[in-house]
Amino acid sequence: MAAQGSYQFLGKAEYASTAAEGMKIARRVKPTAGRLDLWTDQSSRGDSYKVGLAVAFKRHDYPQWREHYTRLESDDKMPSKEAELRAVDFGLRQGKRWLRADDNKLDLYCEVREVVDRIRDYQPGDGLWGEDACKSIHQTVAEIQQNKHWAEEGVPCVVRLTLVKAHAHRKTGGGDGGYPIMGNCWADYWADYWASVVVDDGQSKSQSQEQVDWDIRQMIEKRQKEDLASLKQEMEEIEAALAAEKAMSEEQMMNE
Question: What is the pTM of this model?
Answer without folding.
Answer: 0.69
